[in-house]
Amino acid sequence: MNGEPEVHEEFETRLKAYEGRPAAATGVGRDPVNAPMIRHWCEAMGDTNPAYTGPGAIAPPTMLQAWTMAGLSRRPERTAAYDELLGLLDESGHHAVVATDCEQEYARPLRPGDEITFDSVIESVSERKTTKLGPGYFVTTRTDVSAGGELAGTHRFRILKYAPARRPTNPTNPTKPEERRPRPVVNRDNAGFWEGVARHALLIQRCTGCGTLRFPWLPGCNSCGRPGWDTVEASGEGTVYSYVVMHHPPFPAFEPPYAVGLIELAEGVRIISNVVGVPYDKVRVGMPVRLCFRQYDDELVLPVFQGVTR
User: How far is CA 225 from CA 50, 99, 205, 208, in A?
Assistant: First the structure.
């Protein structure tokens, strides 16, 4: 036991040696920045900002990563260094992986016709962390995206490589582990939403500049670009705008099949959540629903929508 800290320190030194090494081969964007892709993106996001249309249009800044993606038919070329790092973590028992978050920084707008190049490096490997999933290491890669040799933005992507924690036993059946739903990712942009959920309030952001409501929560307004905002509480009334029925194999804390709906709230914004209280095969587009909150364990509360049958 006395030697355990030294073992961790030696292992972490080996991991730290990969910092600064390439994570993927230097790449070239598959297509130049182009108006059709911008249009498709804006239509999918419901973003009507006039800055993204017409002469002199720019690409939405959040499209930064889209211009570096290889597409379905090609895979990005990971470096031997990145594969070695992941291999070390696998061999040490940290074989499970979950994507935790990404961050973007913008240096200049991208415009149709810009040719994209990008470089990806292993920016950091954290010290050993204790998480609810299990002990592990956060690995952050940084991709610098350039247009015409000039830095346009930086995309950071972070994963957790961890050793799965042993699940607590179910007190009603000690031989069966207690099944817990995955935890939502809470960050600086959405913390207020989850604080509202904890007290059974569904909060919608409202721009203090133009009054536009938005969901999910974002750091700025899609309509006018201003950062200021306050919140309004949803009435809880809505309808099923679209839905899918999940038939995936058994997974802890989930019992397929079940319905997941895109719910249009009375306030005009949409939210994805489970449709409950009616059989999954009775859910229909246009079905009225009503907000309720479900306590899944001693920590997790989620907003779901009760189907209202006529």
Answer: 11, 28, 14, 11
* Cα-to-chain-centroid distance, residue 303: 18
List the one residue out of 20, 79, 62 whose CA is nearest residue 152: 62
Q: Which pLDDT tens digit goes with each residue over 7-33?
A: 578 999 999 999 999 998 888 999 999
Q: Are 157 and 140 in contact (CB under 8 A)?
A: yes
Sign of CA dihedral 35, 101, 142, 159: negative
For 203, the token pair is 């909060």
| Domain boundary assignment for the chain | 4-162, 191-307
Q: In a 10 Å sphere around its CB, with 0-12 CB exposed, 13-18 middle and 19+ buried, how is residue 57 labelled?
A: middle
DSSP 17-82: TTTTSEEEEEEE-SS---HHHHHHHHHHHT---GGGSSTT----GGGGGGGG---TT----B-HHH
Do you find a cis peptide bond into 257, omega within 30 degrees of 0?
A: yes
DSSP single-letter state for residue 177? E
DSSP-derived secondary structure letter, 266 = T
User: Does residue 303 contact residue 202 with C-beta atoms inside 8 Å?
Assistant: yes
Sign of CA dihedral 17, 29, 51, 152: positive
Q: What is the pTM of this model?
A: 0.59
Which architecture, in CATH terms, is 4-162? Roll (3.10)
- Phi and psi, residue 259, nearest 5°: -100, 135
- Alpha-carbon distance values, 12 to 96, 138, 161 (Å): 18, 12, 13
> In this predicted model, what pLDDT tens digit does every residue of 267-280 receive, in sequence order?
999 999 999 999 99
Phi and psi at 189, nearest 5°, equal: -85, -25
